[in-house]
Amino acid sequence: MNRPRRVAVTAPPDPGVRPRPVPPRPVPETLLDPARAELARSTRRAQVRRAALTLVCGALLLLGVPVLLRLAPGLSQWRPAGLPLGWILVAWVPYPLLALLAWWHLRGAERAERAGREQPGPVDRPAAPPPAEPAELAGPGSDGAGPAGTATRDTSDTTAPGTHSPIPPAAEHRATST
Amino acid sequence: MTVAAVVTLLFVTVLIGARGVAAMRTTSDFLVASRRTSPMLNAAAVSGEYLSAASFLGVAGLVIKEGTGALWYPVGFTAGYLLMLALVAAPMRRTGALTVPGFAEARLGSRSLRRFCAVVVVVICMLYLVPQIVAAGQLLTLVSGVDYWVGVVMSGLAVGVTLALGGMRAATYVQAFQFALKLLLFAGPAIWLLLLAGPQLRAEMAAPPEFTHFTQQTPVDFRLDTDLVVTEPTLVAVDGVPTRLAPGAYEALADQVWTFPAGAAVPELGGDRASLPVPGGADWALPLLGTGDAAPLLATWSVLVATALGTMGLPHIIVRFHTSPDGRGARRTAAITVAMLGTFYLFTIVYGLLGTVLTPELYLAQGTDTAIVTLPGRITDGSTASVLTALLTAGAFAAFLATSLGLLLALSGALAHDLMPSGLRRLRLTALASSAAVVPAALLMVRIDVSAAVTSAFTVAASTFCPLLVLGLWWKGLTARGAYAGMVTGLVASVGAMALGALLGLDGTVGMLLSQPALLSVPLAFVIMITISWTNAVPAWAEDTMLRLHLADRE
């Protein structure tokens, strides 16, 4: 098995390894650029609609079939192919439907996300100028030189570069902004 | 042969685990395999980790014991990943936090909340882990005749050592391998047994005869103390001693063997098991749970809610999604997992129906959990039967191992990472120490009901972490105090109701809701979490923290 190139990421701060004074919250006022925040809001709304639709379909399937079996016991005893229909409805029918629903949701969710990405969003900056590295590591509970704090570059991270989440465990710290 | 199969499996598990050691350097490497796993591999690993003894053995056993309604359990287990896909996978991955407690602190900024979450992780892991090890011991006792403690110690050791050596990186390969293995060892024997069964047995499977009389001389090996109600005078050999039983109530003691003659009437179950449907009867054939005087619809819904919502709150599954490189990868992982699990569960009904036709007496003996491995011997004999039994045992053992590995990781993560400050060395030691702690617990709790303990882990997860994750990921208004109050409520309501249900042993709808409280405890936790959050001021950074989780991943 050929091993993919490895990219090290740091451990999140371990609470209490090297206790530091916790700076008072709240941290910065706005981390997201207003335009990007708006984009995030609309993406989230699209995803919520999408998820609601999927969940309603899933709930109709999962909670509805028992109702059907309860109200029409005769239906569950009918044997269209040797086995009672009720057993087929429980043992086999839900799985392809769930997989189909999952595939449909995945497509929709990725489309909503692509729509969000296509607009060339400005790179978000903190309201204040980007803090120098030591400052970035000084969040509450943060411990930049933790047991694993040597290699700190993770290109696959998703929090925007140059910003830091208000609470450090959310962000993987990087030595260089990409 | 069976022992050889299990030993080979253990060996391969440790070997694959050791592969991961060389490259492992940091705590993050240990916990989440440096986040480089592809969706397909990761989905196989998720499925491998998720398919525990409850899926491999338990559901088929439940079909014998509780009727075809038990087939709703795996539907709920699979639907859990639809919820994961729609609500949790992508934004949870984007938090960058490694564990649920880490997420709680990252999103809500409360150190004490993190610690409380770690305590909940420990509760869920123990409820889930101990029965896994117990089941491993029972299985080995049954198939190879080794002592119970040998099986328990063997499985505890293998899991602890693999984890301490390789961590999650190892676990990713181990779990993916184990999923392929389990699917093969579940589907293959199912098809093989169907072919061996012959037309008459297959016809009986489609309509199992009601289990009212023993069709042949049948030894019933009671696993636990069991209340029986004998309905007509019966000559029974109790441990070889012929005994004439007049109609009335009796108690069979654990490990006694009662041999019933052919044609004797099957005794009814007494005590708290009196409401179980007779295998093959009309109640049994109606595919709803909780037949009898308990409301079947509510019982079925409650199990569906617990299993589907509990899945997203299982700490050993959540951590798995962090091995995907980004939110999109995590989402794809969840979607593929739905299909993989569905494929596996298609074969459950084969074992359930075969077991009901061939081994209905296990319903008396409280030994339905081991029905699957006894089936080959009932259909055929000689080497074919022992090959099939060995394959199924290896698969079941793979199921114990894979799940235990993930649970132990989550458990040691919570202990070493959240509750105590430490680095990698300590995390490894914690993995060993936790497995050492679980083994004596499993030795003590030989008598617990394996499937009940596993479902209770789902219920607790659904009542605590499910609201935390759903509200934390999608609602800016959630506050630390609200989350705290909601999770405490959910934990107390679910654990309290189940403990009360076990103590009182009530029948009917109330008893059902006490032993299966998800239908009430989950909405309660949501309501408390939302109302308490409303009474608090939301920090200025909260909306930003939440919104960030929904931004598309950067290319």
Explain this structure to me?
The complex is a heterodimer of chains A (178) and B (555). Chain A has 5 helices and no strands. Helix content of chain A is 44%, strand content 0%. In chain A, helix 1 packs antiparallel against helix 4 (94-118). With 178 residues, chain A is mainly α. Residues 15-29 and 121-178 of chain A have low confidence and may be disordered. Chain B has 555 residues and is mostly helical. In chain B, the strands form 2 sheets. A 4-stranded antiparallel β-sheet of chain B has the order 1-6-3-4. In chain B, a hairpin with a 2-residue loop joins strand 3 and strand 4. In chain B, helix 3 crosses helix 8 (148-206), helix 7 packs antiparallel against helix 18 and helix 7 packs parallel to helix 19. The longest helix of chain B is centred in the N-terminal third of the chain and has 59 residues, at 148-206. Mean pLDDT of chain B is 86; it is low at 21-25.
Number of helices of chain A: 5
Number of helices of chain B: 22
Amount of helix of chain B: 55-70%
Biggest interface and residues each: A-B, 90 and 85 residues
Question: In summary, what is this structure?
Answer:
Chain A is mainly alpha-helical and 178 residues long.
What labels would you give this structure?
heterodimer, A: 178 residues, mainly alpha, elongated, B: 555 residues, 4-stranded antiparallel β-sheet, 3-stranded antiparallel β-sheet, 22 helices, 70% helix, 5% strand
Describe the protein's topology:
The complex is a heterodimer of chains A (178) and B (555).
Chain A: H1 34-71, H2 73-77, H3 85-91, H4 94-118, H5 133-136
Helix pairs in contact in A: 1-4
Chain B: H1 2-19, H2 27-32, H3 39-50, H4 53-66, H5 72-95, H6 100-108, H7 111-144, H8 148-206, E1 218-221, E2 226-230, E3 234-238, E4 241-245, E5 248-252, E6 257-260, E7 268-269, H9 282-285, H10 296-313, H11 315-318, H12 327-345, H13 348-358, H14 362-365, H15 371-379, H16 382-419, H17 424-444, H18 450-474, H19 480-504, H20 508-515, H21 518-534, H22 542-548
Antiparallel strand pairs in B: 1-6, 2-5, 2-7, 3-4, 3-6
Helix pairs in contact in B: 1-8, 1-16, 3-8, 3-12, 4-13, 4-16, 5-10, 5-12, 5-18, 6-7, 6-18, 7-8, 7-16, 7-17, 7-18, 7-19, 8-13, 8-16, 8-17, 10-18, 10-21, 13-15, 15-16, 16-17, 18-19, 18-21, 19-20, 19-21
